[in-house]
Write the structure tokens for this entry.
Amino acid sequence: MKRLLLFLIVSTIIFGFEGCASKKYAKRGDKYEQAGMWESAAEAYMRSLASKRDNIDALVGLKRTGQKTIDEKTLKMMKAYETDGLKETVYGYLDIINFKSRASAVGVELSVSDRATDYFNEAKPKYIEKIYSEAQTLLDAEKFTQSESMLKEIETIEPGYGNVQEMLKVSKCEPLYRQGKEYMTSGMNRKAYANFEKIIKEHNGYKDSKELREEALSKALITIKIDDFKYQDGSPEVAT
């Protein structure tokens, strides 16, 4: 009985707190809306609904300001398309879809024009092809970091596109592989081992990284044994 009473008290407190938060954000949304700040108003209404899903004022407010926000974003995206702004078109549309999904998650369905979707479907392959070509050029020029950045962008927009996965592997592994070989040349075998181990663990190997890892490990162990023998013997003659 006491546990049930405690549960009811705690539930009432939580419910009251959520209700207060919901009202606070709904009022904030109303103020933004009166000022014509549609997106800020919509964000406030979303926060209100996140606290209390059945807040009617917030539901109606989000439906109203959310659609106006999408319409504004759509207009901006279409203008970008008409001026050949491929990147702005693609990311503008993705922003619209993200906003729509967030509104849907709190119970409000908004609409996106078919025309906006058509523009996106036309712009996306052109934009991806453009940055794919640039990434390949950068990779050929051994600018691995810049190439990796563009390839990751493609992977985000269009997973599985072209040879992106293979190119990403090269852009990530090649710098580690080269550095590992340099470490071995300089006798820094433990560091070399760490590089090749990372390549194998994170990318399932690359070139002859597995063989080089074993070689680096073997050389590192020999060095450790020799150093240990010198330390135990303490003889200058042996140390030489």
The two ends are 83 Å apart (CA to CA). The chain has ten helices and no strands.
